[in-house]
Amino acid sequence: MNKIGMIDEWYPVGLFSQLDPNGRDTWLMGEPIRVAIDGEGNPLVTGGNGRVLAVCVRYGHVWASLGKPDHDLFPIPEADQPGRRLVEVGVVRVRCSPLRAVENFLDIAHFPFVHTDILGSEPHTEVQNYKVEIREEEDEVWATQVKFYQPQAAKSASGGITTEYMYRVPAPTCSVLYKTCPPRPSEWDVITLFVQPLFEDVCDVWPWMALYDDDTPMTDLIHFQQTIFLQDRSILENQIPTLLPLDPGMEIPTRADLTSVAYRRWLKRHNYTYGAQLVAQ
């Protein structure tokens, strides 16, 4: 278990709207923590030994770090755009590596088989060419020019469309997805996956969205996204090996795995190895 490379990163530990003065007990990278609210209404996160952790609030969530972050939480400018619906989806516990959860979010090849008649369908199974890069200035993984036919790309979509995507990995256990916005074709819908690493093989996943959708009830938006992720959970909990392999020779990638390959290379470069398997066993 090596969490040194990830100790100074920010991690989601709860919804700000659900903070309780009595506190909520949870875990962060194997350490017991308590998430509460102080007398002035500010979040308070303490470690197992009572030490106060670094904390911030953004995108409706409380974020904490076991170390000493030397950077602010990554920006999502769309979160501040007027007219967007900010959707707190809640939390889903998954018995898998937190890095596996992010990698699965980056994979579009499984759409027709796992999210049949929603995000994909047969015979539309081909993954077209797309571009992947590690942007050095931002130090982030990006995949662009991703296109895929989807029967129902969003709750607001009235029929099948070819959806364009951009994937972004700004932190080891977080991913941001930009996708075609049916009501406003000139804008992007934003869907995120914020992953709290409880242990190397168990995580809490906190999806969050920033959408242009004035018609769909909030409950339906939440249920739509929960349905998608619950379909993924059964796949995630049965992956072998449980931890994410970082050795290029341990799994054979295809063209559809370009983003995964870049993500693994980026993790290895930064020693982000909590939840990873470094050598074949």
From TrEMBL:
Annotated organism of origin: Neorhizobium alkalisoli
Which PANTHER family does this one have?
A: 3-KETOSTEROID-9-ALPHA-MONOOXYGENASE, OXYGENASE COMPONENT, IRON-SULFUR DOMAIN CONTAINING PROTEIN
What GO MF annotations does this protein's record show?
Answer: oxidoreductase activity
What name does UniProt use for this protein? Vanillate O-demethylase oxygenase-like C-terminal catalytic domain-containing protein
Q: Does the keyword Oxidoreductase belong to this entry?
A: yes
Checking Gene3D superfamilies in the record gives: Naphthalene 1,2-dioxygenase Alpha Subunit, Chain A, domain 1
Q: Where are the transmembrane segments?
A: none
Q: Which UniProt keywords apply?
A: Oxidoreductase
Q: Where is the Vanillate O-demethylase oxygenase-like C-terminal catalytic domain?
A: 94-269
Q: Name one Pfam family in it.
A: VanA_C
Q: Which domain of life is it from?
A: Bacteria
